Amino acid sequence: MTSLNNLAARSLTDGVPADAADLLGRMWQIRHFENEVMSLFSKNLVRGSTHLCQGQEAVSVGVCWDLRRTDFMTCTYRGHGAVIAKGAPLDGSFGEILGRQIGLCGGKGGSMHLTDISVGALGSNAIVGAHLPISVGSALSSQVQGRDDVSVTIFGDGSTNIGAFHESLNLAAVWKLPIVFVIENNQYGEYSPLASTTPIDQLVRRADSYGMPGVLVDGNDVVAVRAVMNDAVGRARLGLGPTLIEAPTYRQVGHSRSDPGAYRPDGELERWLALDPIPRLASAMVTFGVATSDEVAAIEASARTDVLSALDRALASPIPDDGLRLKDVFA
Amino acid sequence: MTTIYNYRQVISKAIGDEMRADPDVVLFGEDVAAAGGAFKTTPGLFEEFGPNRVRDTPISEQAIVGAALGAAMTGLRPVAEIMFADFAGVCFDQIANQVAKYRYMTNGQVRVPLVIRMANGAGSGFGAQHSQSAENWFLNIPGLKIVTPGTVADLYGLLRASIRDDNPVLFFEHKNLFAIKGEIAGLDSEIVPLGVAAIVREGTDITVVANQQMRHRALEAAEILAAEGISLEVIDPRTIVPFDEETILESLRRTSRLMIVQEGPRDGSWGASLVSRVVTDNFELLDAPPVVLSSEETPVPYAGNLEELWLTSVSEIVEAARRQVRY
């Protein structure tokens, strides 16, 4: 164990950083956001499908925490957490999922397409793996124009078996682009466990094929994710090229609204719930003496208030004007 | 002062002129840099603009198109080449689901100023997987502009306009036209706006709409028919999306007969769509059933005689015109 308020902490076993309360608050915001989306579904207020990320908050927050607004991030359709972590407003995020005017995309995108360019959230994508080459392109812009902004793309274990993954890692490595590839390994590609679709158990080994560093990190430890991200982002800003990070975590809910997750082996969910990233950070804060139990409880309460008031604003927002559907096919 | 170029050479002339005018224009694709292009359409650009702006890629069409999209949204004006248009099948997701929809889905948060250049069409013996008229694949996907130049001047002017456009443009260069010649001066005034058809021969009896290779065959047929007193007005739409329907309708007000000559099977083609629109919206302009001359509903065959039979011939156009004026 090292000192309290350890800015150099590389994992929760080392200590917690000075801004741990902010990290915890953001993770709680995402958790409550997703819980509310789940409840909106049961009230038939959300169209189509949605894909929730409870249990994976440490990846979203750890990856995005130290990025600049001008750094670009793409993510998957299970991307509410990442987009919020990059700085998108909670009310606009709810509004998009509800199909309201206040929505990040005015209600034209939906749950799988949360996008807020103003904070560098370049897009959630509904096609598995399709956003990786797009992030390669935003990294190319930085390189061609001589900016030191980096691009980050977060994707699931399932994406590592689609061609776009391999094409993107290869091209990014050949061009030495300022990009970080993050595998958010939540153990399941839709309904299928990783072992049934993939012949290796550590996906990060695929970094070797593309001549880039590969880093495995505990995806339920926000401090650890943040530390390896900062290493990779630092490399990218210096022009040293891409990094592949694998962050194993766990999807505490089903693939989508129609999936109860009956395929999970007995005891698996319980094992992962014991590793829930939010209580882990909270208890480390108490252990290292940077917060009392009451204080961490107050952080949760405050995050929940933020989420509920954002939801109220979104629900109060009108539906889109009919004419919106004809706009922005072309510039 | 004008210079004579062929259709192949004028491609790098157009790209180079735009790269000189705008430092955000970049070019990448398979073999486009050091080798000057698989079809030798981009020689000299790597030497002039260097490896930052002119880049060879791996054989990775999804990455090429996806990277062009990501770059376009974040400040560049990429010109991406995917060599044979048939290879659009390899990156169909990126074109259909990503490039075409990004601006719309994000409620206009981004502009997507990119050009995807592809070598199109049959007649050169490349076989079924390297000869299709792939512009038709994308007609049902709103959000993509589609350009099919048929002459040197149009290629030059339309390519420069496409690079300047703030939207995604699919730019189809016809392989069987690489050797045709034309003159350009290299001026901004030679930029051809997208969505404006060209009346390439005036006439009074039949409005013939034909692009790329078929435009040239239609002109040959018009010459033969003129000797018989049948007068074809030949119109090259030049861009398929946006489509300049007004020029066609204006012509039909004079001729009252519509003929389309196009490469590729009829079903799902731009010609079939044009007939559908004219018949449903402007039926009263027509004095005869529209004629659509297309390729047979088969893949493109390889052997020279079979491939030539697959394409509409000059004599087929002549015969069809004789029948149509007698209706």
Notes on the protein architecture:
The complex is a heterodimer of chains A (331) and B (327). By secondary structure, chain A is an alpha/beta fold. Chain A has a single domain (20-314), classed as Thiamin diphosphate (ThDP)-binding fold, Pyr/PP domains (Rossmann fold), CATH 3.40.50. In chain A, 39% of the residues lie in helices and 11% in strands. Chain A has helices at residues 20-42, 57-64, 80-85, 90-98, 131-145, 163-174, 222-237, 268-273, 277-287, 293-316, and strands at 72-76, 121-125, 151-156, 179-185, 188-189, 192-193, 214-216, 243-248. In chain A, strand 5 (188-189) and strand 6 form a beta hairpin. In chain A, helix 1 packs across helix 10 (293-316) and helix 2 (57-64) runs parallel beside helix 7. The longest helix of chain A has 24 residues, at 293-316. With 327 residues, chain B is α/β, with parallel strands linked by helices. Chain B folds into 2 domains: 3-190, Rossmann fold (3-Layer(aba) Sandwich), CATH 3.40.50; 198-326, Rossmann fold (3-Layer(aba) Sandwich), CATH 3.40.50.920. Chain B has a 7-stranded mixed beta sheet with strand order 3-2-4-5-7-6-12, with helices on both faces. A 5-stranded mixed beta sheet of chain B has the order 9-11-10-13-14, with helices on both faces. In chain B, helix 2 (45-49) links the parallel strand 2 and strand 3. The longest helix of chain B has 15 residues, at 212-226. Chain B is globular, with a radius of gyration of 20 Å. At the A-B interface, strand 2, helix 5 and helix 6 of A face helix 3, helix 4 and helix 5 of B.
